[in-house]
Amino acid sequence: MLGVKRRTPVGPRPRHVGLVMDGNRRWARAARLAPSVGHRAGARHMGTVLSWCEDEGIDHVTIFVASALNLRKRDSAEVANLMELLETVIAEQIETSTWRLHVAGDLSLVPATTRDALQHAMDHSAGRGRHLTLAVGYDWQGEVVESVRSSLAEVRTWDEALEALDERSIAGHLRGGPSKDIDLVVRTSGEQRLSGFFPWETTRSELFFVDHLWPDFSREDFDAALAHYASKRTPTSPVE
Fold first, then answer.
1. Are 19 and 60 contacting, i.e. CB atoms less than 8 angstroms apart?
2. How far is residue 7 from each of residues 3, 4, 226, measured CA to CA in Å?
3. Active site residue 181
């Protein structure tokens, strides 16, 4: 039986895509597997989705891995498994990819081995043209506060601070790749909320929610998200 040829969505493409890869634990539970199996499947699927982004010419991607609250509140064994995946599966994917890694979040919340692995991946991938930001130990309020502090650290007087501290300065000090504005946010698992996913950067984002759990997120789902974005960003014809 001949396969159906996939139709690439036509229209404007997002430059920067945000991914909330939700549902790994539910995917494992539905298959009567341990949560660690779901997280591993989700980590491996990340590389596949990044390849789709490359196919479509998308050169900035931001992915939510774990919030600060996740790392503080979840079962220690589950967190340890997630850290192991960051150190192995995810770090190895980045090392052999075309993506430059950036990290947003409080890395003091992760073990030294995880920090070292992420730092190695950031150093090794420096200079690449595509940008991947992983949110690890991420707390949006903490990120904005840290950005303001970094902005103020560059001035010497209060008058300079009043002049220098503006939207552009704060955005420029937010951690992540060079493109701060996220054009399209995709969240899997049927949840229709952002859960603190980069609120400063997503003010003007188009949102697309998918019922499939992250390990089942398909190329058809991805194409539907791109088509949704194109439909929202295509200029309408003037009324005659």
1. no
2. 12, 9, 12
3. no
